[in-house]
Amino acid sequence: MKTIAVGKKVHARVMKAGLECDMFMENTLVNMYAKCGFLKDARHVFDRMSERNIVSWTTMIAGYAQHRQSWEAIELYLEMLSEGLRANQFTFASVLRACASSASVKHGKQIHAQAIKTGFGSDVTIGNALVTVYARCGNLESAREVFDRVSQRDVVSWSAIISGYTQNGHGYEAQKQFSRMLWAGVKSDKFIFATALVACRGSEDVGLGKQVHAHIIKTEFESDAVMESTLVTMYVKCGSIEDAHKVFDKVLECDLVTWTAIIAGYGRSGRGEVALQNFCQMLQAGIKPDNFSFTSVLGVCADLAIIDQGKQFHCQTIKNGFQEDASVGSALITMYAKCSCIGDACEVFKMIPKTEVVSWTAMIVGYALHGQGKEALQLFEQMQCAGIKPDHITFVGVLSACSHVGLVDEGRRYFDSMTRIYDLVPTVEHYACIVDQLGRAGRLDEAESFINEMPFEPSALVWGTLLSACKIRGNLKLGKRAAVKLLELEPQECAPYILLSNIFASEGRWDDAARVRKMMKDRGIVKEPGQSWIVVQNKVHAFYVEDRLHPQTEEIYATLEELTVQIEAAGYVPDTKFLLHKLGSEQKENNLSRHSERLAIAYGVLSTAPGTPIRVLKNLRVCGDCHNAAKFISLAAKREIVLRDSSRFHHFKDGICSCGSYW
């Protein structure tokens, strides 16, 4: 502001001296005002000029382009042409910059043709600007054609094409161009290095990321603040949290971006407790969190289901003025929903502005997760009435809601509306939702036909969904076909082996089940063990099947035995078909009663006050017998039990589950 004040004083002196009508002086004044961002003043001087040359027009166009008033720049350029002036290379470069900002490929092509006609088609500055225009508009083919025709490429040329491929999601091609640039002997700057790292994280290629990192070290850009945060983010997105932490530890003064990157990294890698520790360290270092860091740490609370910590962060978001931020609001909704507090999620939703699709989507997905399909669909209708256009994630929530409450035909109508009404192309997740709906309803042949009619090759997610349905419905023939397809796509994943083995076991074909498990063992594939955990007084207590490592093991098993006696007296009968091993009936019953979720529930009954809800999480889908037992325990212990498994939430109260035994 001091600079512009001085500039205006000089302008006043110019007027007093009678020099205002001097074209050179007027062009200088336009340039001064434009570069300082005072475009109205610049235009005022420009409009009062009695005579203008190409410098006058170019200066004003460049000012608009620089400050992202793209359409004003393009309109002024067209006005210049109507006055009979001929653009030079600087005019073309400036107006093309405006075309890039506005993503106007139509004007970009017209100006491209004009540049060729006036003899500037091979100019490197114009070529660089054209590459940027075409890339920003998603026309990579034209961008590459222009780039290839630039005879003397400079660092800006390479930066334009590498950025273009990166911004359009072509990470590997961006990396190829980066390598070509190095072979051509062009010295990279930190902006190209940063773009190359973004390309690596987009393609999740940590090997190439490390190569770029090595070049950065050689050129001594590693200590640059932007480069440090970009490196941390790259390693995080590539799933290499250890490398991310090595870079993080070398940073002398971590800024908010770097802290947020490492917090998000630990959260995504399943090390939520470390993420929370880093967030607390960030606060101790005097760094004020922003909406992105709050979103990351709330996501950690959601994954760990630590509601008390989540509520503390909720208070901090209010103190820091983020109560109306859409991303923080949606993160809070998700956190409360995943912590089994769907009522609190609703309260947050009521209080935040509802102008963003992300807020509506978070609440719809939350309802779906808790099996409240009707509420989810009602909210979706309200969202449509509010004029908010749903996105792909919204429809995943809507279709999941239909799945959980058995609304197969309604689900198909919503699926069809994606393309018919909203011009959204269904992804593999949406197709998997329809397969899930048909599978849960027992319409397995229809599900297989739906898969065969997909417009692209079905993924492992789709075949895995069908295989799970075959296991539940006991359809061995179709299950084998689905398992073969799944094994072709994911030969090193344990799920298809386990599901196929369980299908054989449920049919009493123990030899076939053993053969599948032996095949799995021979290939070195290890099954993820079932684990359940419960948070009591901010401490996580984890259990495996027949677990005896907890310090209160004797009390837990005594409580479990007492509960078993009570629920059997109330009519519970163990369903041994859910224990898919060749054992005696008595041994099967004992094993069922010691599943991880029952141990966690027993510990909840033992260690929490009577009448308080018991909240348990499980990494796998709850078995049918434990689901039935939980209903009886909720009645016998007079407790609400909230069980979150890999599929959804189950709210057990007074002997009834919210899923209606449909999950």
Any overview of this molecule?
- This protein is mainly alpha-helical and 663 residues long.
- It has 35 helices and six strands.
- It has a six-stranded mixed β-sheet, covered by helices on one side.
- The radius of gyration is 31 Å and the shape is elongated.
What is the fold's blueprint, element by element?
Blueprint: H1 2-16, H2 23-35, H3 39-47, H4 54-66, H5 70-82, H6 89-102, H7 105-117, H8 124-136, H9 140-149, H10 155-167, H11 171-183, H12 190-203, H13 206-218, H14 225-237, H15 241-250, H16 256-268, H17 272-284, H18 291-304, H19 307-319, H20 326-338, H21 342-351, H22 357-369, H23 373-385, H24 392-404, H25 408-420, H26 428-440, H27 444-452, H28 460-473, H29 476-489, H30 495-506, H31 510-522, E1 531-536, E2 539-544, H32 553-569, H33 585-593, H34 596-607, E3 614-618, H35 624-636, E4 641-644, E5 649-653, E6 656-657
Parallel strand pairs: 3-4
Antiparallel strand pairs: 1-2, 1-3, 4-5, 5-6
Largest sheet: 6 strands, mixed
Main sheet strand line-up: 2-1-3-4-5-6
Classification by helices and strands: mainly alpha
The portion of residues assigned to helices is 55-70%
Instruction: Report the span from N to C terminus.
Output: 64 Å
Q: Specify the overall morphology.
A: elongated
**Average predicted local confidence, pLDDT:** 87
Point out poorly predicted stretches.
582-590
Radius of gyration: 31 Å
Share of residues in strands: under 5%
Can you count the helices? 35
Number of strands: 6
